[in-house]
Amino acid sequence: RLMQTATTVREVSRQLQRHPVRMTVRNIMIVTKARDNELVHLTRELAEWLLTTPRNGSDLGVNVYVDQKLRNSKRFNVQTLLAKDSRIEGMLRFWTPDMCWESPEQFDLVLTLGGDGTVLYTSWLFQRIVPPVLSFSLGSLGFLTNFEFAQYKESLGRIMNNNEMRVNIRMRFTCTVFRYQKHAGPNAPEYIEAEQWEVLNELVIDRGPSPYVSNLELYGDDNLITVVQADGCIFSTPTGSTAYSLSAGGALVHPDIPAILLTPICPHTLSFRPMLLNDSMLLRVAVPRHSRATAYCAFDGKGRVELRQGDHVTIAASQYPFPSVVSKPMEWFDSISRTLRWNNRGAQQKGW
Amino acid sequence: RLMQTATTVREVSRQLQRHPVRMTVRNIMIVTKARDNELVHLTRELAEWLLTTPRNGSDLGVNVYVDQKLRNSKRFNVQTLLAKDSRIEGMLRFWTPDMCWESPEQFDLVLTLGGDGTVLYTSWLFQRIVPPVLSFSLGSLGFLTNFEFAQYKESLGRIMNNNEMRVNIRMRFTCTVFRYQKHAGPNAPEYIEAEQWEVLNELVIDRGPSPYVSNLELYGDDNLITVVQADGCIFSTPTGSTAYSLSAGGALVHPDIPAILLTPICPHTLSFRPMLLNDSMLLRVAVPRHSRATAYCAFDGKGRVELRQGDHVTIAASQYPFPSVVSKPMEWFDSISRTLRWNNRGAQQKGW
Amino acid sequence: RLMQTATTVREVSRQLQRHPVRMTVRNIMIVTKARDNELVHLTRELAEWLLTTPRNGSDLGVNVYVDQKLRNSKRFNVQTLLAKDSRIEGMLRFWTPDMCWESPEQFDLVLTLGGDGTVLYTSWLFQRIVPPVLSFSLGSLGFLTNFEFAQYKESLGRIMNNNEMRVNIRMRFTCTVFRYQKHAGPNAPEYIEAEQWEVLNELVIDRGPSPYVSNLELYGDDNLITVVQADGCIFSTPTGSTAYSLSAGGALVHPDIPAILLTPICPHTLSFRPMLLNDSMLLRVAVPRHSRATAYCAFDGKGRVELRQGDHVTIAASQYPFPSVVSKPMEWFDSISRTLRWNNRGAQQKGW
Amino acid sequence: RLMQTATTVREVSRQLQRHPVRMTVRNIMIVTKARDNELVHLTRELAEWLLTTPRNGSDLGVNVYVDQKLRNSKRFNVQTLLAKDSRIEGMLRFWTPDMCWESPEQFDLVLTLGGDGTVLYTSWLFQRIVPPVLSFSLGSLGFLTNFEFAQYKESLGRIMNNNEMRVNIRMRFTCTVFRYQKHAGPNAPEYIEAEQWEVLNELVIDRGPSPYVSNLELYGDDNLITVVQADGCIFSTPTGSTAYSLSAGGALVHPDIPAILLTPICPHTLSFRPMLLNDSMLLRVAVPRHSRATAYCAFDGKGRVELRQGDHVTIAASQYPFPSVVSKPMEWFDSISRTLRWNNRGAQQKGW
Question: Residue C92 has what pLDDT?
Answer without folding.
Answer: 97
